[in-house]
Automatic annotation (TrEMBL):
UniProt EC number: 2.7.4.6
Keyword Manganese: no
Stored CDD domains: NDPk_I
Gene designation: ndk
Name of this chain's protein: Nucleoside diphosphate kinase
Length: 143
């Protein structure tokens, strides 16, 4: 069983797509174990996007992600990292396969609606930036 960090970015929140995005992961059969509606501080942004510090898109990326609320989540399930990225689609909406979230709703790389961890290592790191261990609610599915 794997876990991943997913975050509806400010553009997804402002466009009213939180429900639509959550619905896609629910219908896939993945399990929500944590969620938080919050502002990303500059400190959190710097930790989350550490690998992009120094790149030309980093300053506008931080401005964007800190400007208005995000919806941060942890999901779990078998192969949840790869499955989530398949549902989300490629970073650039032009390359995203039809039927993916980014293909269906995004136009621009800078406003691509949702973040999903790209590896188990990233997932562990990103979950620990946004959530404390007590905020993850593990439960057995009985129905
Ligand atoms: P994400 O993969 O969630 O995290 C890094 C973000 O930086 C990425 O989504 C895009 O929104 C943004 N970004 C802007 N330009 C680029 C680029 N050239 N390559 C990768 N990410 C970019």
């Amino acid at each position: 069983m794997e876990r991943t960090f997913l975050m509806v970015k400010p553009d997804g929140v402002q466009r009213g797509l939180i429900g639509e995005i959550i619905s896609r992961f629910e219908r896939k059969g993945l399990q929500l174990v944590a969620a938080k509606f919050m502002m990303v501080t500059p400190e959190i942004a710097e930790r989350h996007y550490a690998e992009h510090v120094g790149k030309d898109f980093y300053p506008p990326l931080v401005d964007f992600i800190t400007a208005s609320p995000v919806f941060a989540m942890v999901w779990q399930g078998d192969n949840v990292i790869a499955l989530s990225r398949a549902l989300i689609g490629k970073t650039n909406a032009l390359d995203a396969a039809p039927g993916t979230i980014r293909s269906d709703y995004a136009v621009h790389t800078n406003f691509n609606l949702i973040h999903g961890s790209d590896s188990a290592e990233s997932a562990g790191r990103e979950i620990s930036i946004f959530f404390g261990p007590n905020e993850l609610v593990d439960y057995e599915q009985t129905i």
